[in-house]
Hints:
121 residues; four-stranded antiparallel beta sheet; 0% helix
Amino acid sequence: QVQLVESGGGLVQAGGSLTLSCAASGSDFSINAMGWYRQAPGKQRELVATITARGSTNYADSVKGRFTISIDNAKNTVYLQMNSLKAEDTAVYYCTAGAFLTKPFRLNNFWGQGTQVTVSS
């Protein structure tokens, strides 16, 4: 199994910045891709950004140009640098990882517990 631990959420004023981190740990796994989703109150969970182990990225239109996702393969850690934050970015942010597991070999998806990001206007 793979455990994901997020950090870096908090309260920030509109226009400010935050960086989220998510570290994957466990045994007998290798990361295929990692990413971030978010869920605001009363709304469905939505994609924010994803990145493959090779560095290919994908962003939601709402965050393009403001957020940057990156990955440290040596540390199995994904980062989300969030700039020019808006009130509508307020949500619980969830880390996700697609990981290859062994014994038997398979691809599974894992989720973190979520971290709150609140942007005050």
